[in-house]
Design brief:
The complex is a heterodimer of chains A (about 240) and B (about 550). Chain A is of the alpha/beta class. Helices cover about 40% and strands about 25% of the residues of chain A. Chain A has a six-stranded mixed beta sheet with strand order 6-7-8-3-9-10, with helices on both faces. In chain A, a hairpin with a 3-residue loop joins strand 1 (about 1-10) and strand 2 (about 15-25). Chain B starts with a helix and ends with a helix. The chains are: A alpha/beta (about 240), B mainly alpha (about 550).
Chain lengths: ~240, ~550
């Protein structure tokens, strides 16, 4: 579903954010993307979604090349950015309707999706209010609903749990599991190792633009017997 | 360095547009800056200087030598005050940094003092060139001593202090006495309506005060006991003092000037100490609204085409964001007031009557001049409302949205251009319709005006979007800051005005010095503006989309 092949990105010809990295996410997989601040996680996410252009390399989403077939590739993605402060002067319904129109979601399906997801996130009562009046967590929730409304085969989520209350975080994790179970791909970045531990089939650890580890958590723990994931992560990234 | 200075410098840096690192963009910006400074700012300043110079010499003979420069500086102060209200409200109460500054161990003096100084510096920079021109015009014409230049320089840097002090005190007192102003939108709406109402009231007061024609204006300026200047000197006492300091009693007048400014700042700081912390807490960004059940909102959820939905989103954001509403929408309504003032200025010369007479009689030159005027006003309105030239800038921190949604960049730019065309074009067509009724233009000429106007609006809209795509100002913490100090808006306006001026001058010269009739010139004009449209559309579809694609944000 996601193919990221030999991608390099340098900012202003000086800072190499990611350096010749490659990975894949298959259908049915939940892959966690872990790394310290400034390691290249957000740059990778942005290249995957077409927000920024890679210097070299190839990115394929749901068989579509993000540079050659950007509209089809983007149609296949549900993306949650790291900032939920978007279109604050629109009401909740207006924002969701805009996203529904952009992703061509039929009216009936849109209403059903919005109702069910908003109920799970306890957001229904706030849909007629401007997003500006929402708390940070509520803004994050409406971004999740908007990103997933068109039921895309590929979810790319940049720090999706930030700002969510425990119930909403639980619901989102459930949704991620349900989505992967249906044969779709879920790729998300996180700083919370426990989330990765409980949720991911596989993790990719990145540092200074290089992939340090790509595999299952079980394999990682087998290689480092009697050590906690936190300690393994710190040892890997502080080398 | 003191905390006050550090904070002031930090605040100034947050308003400044970011510097461009790419070489070709640096060159582009230098060229644009050159065009803006030499094509617009310096000619405008030169015009102000010449007007003051021309008026000062004859006025000096009848003992009213300082009247012209004083009146002009009062006018600048009135503008500083009117536009300063919104700026001060925003920087004191509703800028994004307030939440970060309030928990810090800073006194109200430090917060308010730094914010005031930052606003004063940006105001002084904006006014610098016209104030310099006014002083230069006066100094050269009056032949006052050489040290007047030093006084003028001092005046240039400090003239906006008192208007901004008034704004600051009014803002704080308003926040203190009105319980309902607890969110940004209410304030912005109130100040927007106040500014618009002030312009209308001033226009009608002037028109009703015994005439605004050129003769009355000149006789009022030449009166040594000018009542307007006396009243304005009471409101802005520093203006009279700085001008008097150039004429004589320099030391005493400068002392008084400094004393008046110091007293104003002291009063302002005292108000800040007593009022600021009490009024700044408890402010929020938006009104709370009553919540509705899903069944009541679900009916509104229905499918539309993506461009239509995107267009609705653009309109909603423009109309609901007060800073955009006042700067991009309301500004379109101010033009009739200016046109009315021009109409009043004709006085007894009745040049408009002869113009109307010539139009009715189908005078070719008059019809051509009228059409060129329609095109010029269309360009000016579209460039001045900045709907197009801030279209990408307004996306701000969520600019990435443009890039990750499955909609082509050009489709999005077309919608953004359409918003500008609809709003600017609707305004222009309304004015053309009013002119058609008043001047009895006839169907053909009216349609011709509408079409030419739409073409001119469309050209500036696409060109404005291209200009904004070169280096959109995406980092701002308040919507007003997206528009303030935005070079793209200024450069777009400068280029559009210069291009239009060249087009109008070219068309008129062709008419005057060739055997082409007016009809042929009008056809050439249409073709030329259509070519400009094609060029700006191509710039958008080839360059602007590339610029968006290469933006790493």
């Amino acid at each position: 579903m996601i193919k990221f092949e030999n991608v390099t990105k340098t900012y202003n010809k000086k800072v190499r954010a990611i350096d010749d990295i490659s990975f894949q996410v298959k259908g049915g997989e939940i892959v966690g993307f872990i790394g310290p601040n400034g390691s290249g996680k957000t740059t990778t996410m942005k290249i995957l979604t077409g927000i920024i252009k890679a210097d070299v390399g190839k990115v394929t989403i749901n068989k579509y090349n993000i540079r050659r077939d950007p509209i089809k590739a983007k149609q296949s993605i549900g993306y949650i950015s790291d900032s939920p402060d978007m279109f604050l002067r629109l009401k909740g319904t207006e924002f969701l309707d805009l996203i529904g129109d952009i992703y061509h979601v039929p009216t009936k399906k849109r209403r059903e999706k919005i109702e069910s997801m908003c109920e799970r996130f306890e957001l229904t009562d706030y849909l007629s209010a401007p997003i500006m009046s929402y708390s940070h967590g509520m803004r994050q929730k409406i971004m999740v609903v908007a990103a997933l409304m068109h039921n895309p085969p590929v979810w790319i989520l940049d720090e999706p749990m930030i700002g969510l209350d425990p119930k909403s975080a639980f619901e989102l994790k459930q949704m991620m599991r349900e989505h992967a179970k249906a044969g779709n791909a879920v790729f998300f970045s996180t700083h919370v190792l426990e989330v990765a531990e409980k949720l991911c089939d596989r993790v990719i650890i990145i540092k200074k633009g290089h992939i340090l580890y790509d595999g299952t958590l079980e394999q990682l723990e087998d290689q480092n017997k009697n050590e906690s994931l936190e300690k393994i992560f710190l040892e890997l990234t502080e080398k | 360095m003191s905390i006050f200075l550090k904070l002031t410098m930090a605040l100034i840096k947050t308003v400044e547009p970011g510097s461009e690192e790419k070489k070709y963009k640096k060159i582009f910006y230098r060229i644009m800056g050159f065009i803006a400074v030499f094509g617009i700012m310096l000619p405008m300043a030169f015009l102000v200087g010449v007007i003051i110079y021309t008026l000062t010499a004859p006025l000096a003979e009848i003992g009213s030598g300082t009247n012209a420069v004083e009146l002009f500086l009062h006018l600048v102060s009135v503008f500083s005050f009117v536009f300063g209200i919104n700026v001060i409200f925003t920087v004191f109460y509703f800028s994004g940094d307030i939440e970060n500054l309030l928990p810090l161990p800073l006194s109200p003096y430090q917060i308010i003092g730094s914010k005031f100084t930052a606003a004063l510096i940006s105001e002084s920079i904006m006014e610098f060139i016209v104030i310099l021109a006014a002083f230069a015009g006066y100094i050269i014409a009056a032949g006052v001593p050489f040290y007047s230049w030093i006084i003028a320089l001092f005046g240039m840097l400090t003239l906006p202090v008192i208007p901004l002090v008034y704004c600051g005190i009014i803002c704080m007192l308003l926040m203190l006495i009105t319980g309902f102003i607890k969110n940004k939108d209410t304030v912005n709406k109130i100040t927007g309506v106040m500014t618009f109402a002030a312009v209308i009231i001033i226009a009608f007061l002037i028109s009703g005060s015994g005439g605004f024609d050129t003769e009355h204006l000149l006789s009022a300026i030449s009166d040594p006991n000018n009542s307007i200047i006396n009243t304005m000197n009471f409101i802005f006492p520093h203006i009279g003092l700085i001008v008097d300091a150039m004429v004589g009693n320099t030391f005493i007048n400068i002392l008084f000037y400094i004393a008046v400014n110091a007293a104003a700042i002291a009063l302002f700081m005292l108000t800040a100490r007593l009022v600021y912390f009490r009024t700044v807490t408890g402010i929020n960004g938006a009104r709370q609204t009553k919540h509705k059940s899903f069944s009541s909102v679900s009916e509104k959820i229905k499918r539309r085409s993506a461009p239509v939905s995107y267009l609705k989103k653009e309109f909603k954001l423009l109309f609901r964001t007060p800073a955009y509403f006042s700067n991009c929408i309301i500004i379109n309504l101010i033009w009739p007031v200016f046109l009315y003032l021009i109409y009043l200025l004709q006085g007894k010369t009745n040049f408009l009557d002869s113009f109307i007479y010539n139009i009715h009689n189908g005078d070719e030159e008059t019809v051509l001049v009228f059409l060129l005027g329609v095109s010029a006003v269309s360009v000016l309105i579209t460039a001045a409302n900045s709907i197009a030239s801030s279209a990408l800038t307004r996306e701000g921190k969520h600019f990435a949205f443009i890039k990750y949604i499955p909609m082509s960049y050009m489709a999005q730019l077309n919608v953004k251009a359409l918003v500008s065309i609809i709003i600017s074009g609707a305004g222009m067509i309304l004015y053309v319709a009013a002119a058609a009724i008043y001047l009895n233009l006839g169907i053909k000429l009216t349609l011709c005006c509408c079409l030419l106007s739409l073409l001119s609006v469309s050209f500036v809209s696409y060109f404005g979007i291209f200009m904004d795509s070169v280096n959109p100002k995406l980092i701002w913490d308040d919507e007003l800051n997206a528009l303030r100090g935005n070079y793209n808006i200024f450069f777009n306006m400068a280029i559009a005005i210069l291009l239009e001026a060249a087009t109008c001058a070219g068309a008129y010269l062709l008419f005057k010095f060739t055997n082409f009739g007016a009809l042929m010139i009008i056809i050439i004009l249409f073709i030329f503006i259509m070519l400009l449209n094609a060029l700006s559309y191509l710039l958008c579809s080839i360059k602007a989309t590339k610029n968006i694609d290469s933006l790493s944000f």
